[in-house]
Structures are given as structure tokens and as C-alpha cells.
Amino acid sequence: MSWVIRVPSSTSNLGAGFDSVGLALNLYLDLKVTTAAQEWKFIPASDCIMDIPTGKENLIYKIAIETALQFGYDDLPPCTVELKSDIPLARGLGSSATATIAGIELANLLLNLNLAAEEKLDIATKIEGHPDNVAPCLMGGCVIGHFDYEVNWTKTAVNNITFLAIIPDFELKTKEARAALPKTFNYQESVHASSIANVSVAAICQGNWELLGRMMKKDLFHQPYRKPLVPHYDELEFYLEKYAYGTFLSGAGPTMIAIVDNQVVEQQLDKWKKEYSQFEWLPLQVENEGLVTMKLNVSY
């Protein structure tokens, strides 16, 4: 028996929506899963994942067995899993979140758990500790979520706007980015910061990108503390100011994302690539569908 599992990437911490607002993007992790194997084997078929573990130490397997244990299973039938991905690792574009969702879905299929989407989201959020990176990978679109023992969330579709990812050639681990954040806010700071985030969410739901861009520049939750970890941030933000509605750190970074009209990207992308050739420039669209699973009856 074989399945194909496709999980879109995500950008999280969207502007001032720290740990609560994320978008699914049209970069994907694809798995072809074949049962009746002798042992677990993960076969990478894309350059960016060539160094991943190929046995049970693989993150996808670890998530799958963790999911299985929650439902009283202590084993999973061995599979061969062919992996394709165009998501850069450790760049703030949801590579670990896609692995989490893929692992949960893998257990769901192998054990016939018949989990609803909300159940998968609950498992994923408890693993991650917050919903903003995993929820878009699962649900698609823009997901605004809150987690406190249970996940409360809402989704809105986003269309006809480009999220331009500017990807440097170095990694930034989430643990390092988390360490840069303050331990506490006082009451007045918290009210001010949350009001910025509230307006940001309203702007996303209305497709008011100009307003969202203004709010991104005012963020107090994470970007001011993480920008020093990305030496080129201020320079690129200033460079793109006349073209983009706003620029923000994707996830924990170091990828930056600029929100730009589709036509502007078409007109200017070659120029940007030439003037800042040390970065990878990826014009991305929001993936509004989320996780897709298909049973195969033919070769992949």
C-alpha cells in the first residue's frame, strides 16, 4: 500500500503575531510512503534534505511514533518513505513544522486512526508549544491561533499578493532566536504590544497590506530583539521600503519576507537578484489548501 502526503511550508510569527499568526506558503514537503518494508528507511530525493537521518532517528518517524503512543500503540509497521522538499532547512520557513504534520499524518494512515483535522492540530500544537507554524501547514491559508490546554483558531484565505522570501546562506536555530527574547513585559508594554498585534490581525483579514506593513514596523514582541541576529535586516528593509508594504522576519529567521504586489515583483525581481545576489529570492504565494493525502494505486 502506498500514499503520497503533501505538506505546505509556513511562515510564522507574522509581523506582530508572535506565536499566534502564520501563513501556509507554496513550498512543499512530499512523502511517498510504501508499506511492507523490512525496516524503516527514509530516502531523500532533494538537495536540501540530503543530510537528514535515514532511519528511526528521522524527525518524521519520531513524531509518528510519539503520535502512535498517544493512542496506545508502541510500534508502527516499517515503511520506505521517499522524501522530496523545496523548503530550506533552519531558515524560518517551517521545515520542522512540515515534518511534524507529516509524522502525525503518517501515524494516522498506518494505524487507521481516522483523526479529524482538529485532532491533528491539537497533537501538533502540544508538540510544538504554539500553533502558528504547524496550523498553516495543516489547515492552509492564514491561521490565527491561541493555545492554552486546547487550541482555539480561525482561518482566513489570502490571495493575489506575493510573500517574497529573501533567504541568506546561513542558518539560525530557533533555540538561539528564543534566547534573544525578553523574559517579561510590564503591563503597559503588554497592552501596547498586543494592540499592535490586534490591528495586524484585522489588517490581514481585510487584505489591508499597507496597514499590516505599518504594524509590522511597530512590533514589540520579537523582531526588535531578533534583528541583531540577522546583520543585513535593516539594510534590506530600507532597500525594499519603496516597493514593499512591509518586511518581517519569517519564523525565528534568518529569512526575511517582504509583502509585495504581484506586478511589482514581476517588474523588479531581476534587479533585486542582481543587486543582492548573495541571497536567494523566492516569490511565494499563500497555499490555501493545507495538508493533502492521496492513496496510490499506480507508481509515483
From TrEMBL:
Its EC number(s): 2.7.1.39
Membrane found in the keyword field: no
Quick one: which pathway? Amino-acid biosynthesis; L-threonine biosynthesis; L-threonine from L-aspartate: step 4/5
The protein's gene is named thrB
From which organism does this entry originate? Answer: Aquibacillus rhizosphaerae
Q: What is this protein called?
A: Homoserine kinase
Annotated InterPro entries: GHMP_kinase_C_dom (IPR013750), GHMP_kinase_C_sf (IPR036554), GHMP_kinase_N_dom (IPR006204), GHMP_knse_ATP-bd_CS (IPR006203), Homoserine_kinase (IPR000870), Ribosomal_Su5_D2-typ_SF (IPR020568), Ribsml_uS5_D2-typ_fold_subgr (IPR014721)
Origin organism lineage: Bacteria, Bacillati, Bacillota, Bacilli, Bacillales
Domain GHMP kinase N-terminal: residue ranges: 58-141
Residues noted as binding ATP in the record, renumbered to the chain: 88-98
> Which family is this sequence assigned to?
Belongs to the GHMP kinase family. Homoserine kinase subfamily.
Q: What does this protein do?
A: Catalyzes the ATP-dependent phosphorylation of L-homoserine to L-homoserine phosphate.
Q: Which Pfam families match?
A: GHMP_kinases_C, GHMP_kinases_N
Location(s) in or outside the cell: Cytoplasm
Which GO MF terms does the UniProt record name? homoserine kinase activity
